[in-house]
Amino acid sequence: MKPSLVVLAAGIGSRYGGLKQIDPVGPSGESIIDYSIFDAIRAGFGKVVFVIRKEIESVFREKVSSKFENLIQVEFVYQELNVLPSGFFVPEGRIKPWGTAHAILMAEKVVNNPFAVINSDDFYGKSAFQLISNYLSSAKDTDYADFSMVGFILKNTLSEFGSVSRGVSCCDKKSNLVDITERTNIRKEVDKIFYVEEETRYSLTGEEIVSMNMLGFTPSIFIYIKEMFVEFLETKKNELKSEFYIPYVVDKLIKNNKAKVKVLKSYDSWFGITYKEDKPYVKNNIKELIKRGIYPEKLD
Fold first, then answer.
1. What is the pLDDT of residue 20?
2. Pick the CATH number of 4-149+211-250+272-291 from 3.40.50.20, 3.10.290.10, 3.40.50.920, 3.90.550.10
3. Predicted TM-score of the model (pTM)
């Protein structure tokens, strides 16, 4: 069975100021999602599941899924604040989504085979999709879960226009993930890279392997997410900006010897849209990839 692709596209885009998920960046009006689905199809994926907010479904169907419905199976699921385990309620004043792990959980009812997860506003590149598709083709659910992650070099994933969040990773000699920590305030200033935590700066080399939320899972991940989401809500539900990140889930599974995560290293330069100022840079990168023959002038 071909693997599925889960696209996390429910983010509000507060720093960007709009629906960056469908903003045109290609020469024929293509969005970053269009390139991701194009890459997924040629890498052998058989289904794409969009995790969105209900209120943007109509524009997603018009601008994105209509282009691919004859080429790949398309499903929609919805990440809403009130989709919570029994006994829990949305705290007064909560606006922020619950986070990437919660978003992935929304796909449980429509995904029953190995699958990859990506962000809608990240451009991962052709080779990254092929790497993870190849790995998922032999991944199986056992007592010791067989997961994977495409790792990028930190210095290749930064924005010139503000801070970014990255899952900073450590691997063993067999390229298995040993540790992953979400750093939510990574910045670049001149030739220095650092992250800020509680007003303190911590230096980074730029050579660290980071997760861009391009992850490969078997369906057992849903069981683990549900268990940990209850724990998260019991301790942090009243912290209105707290988020339940998928790197946290992965890291805990590794530490508890319940999963291995093979890191599939990509040396390509990631690019994406976090801030409006990123858009011209993304458009120029896509033009260069088209010149090199990696993508057609117009996606079919």
1. 62
2. 3.90.550.10
3. 0.89
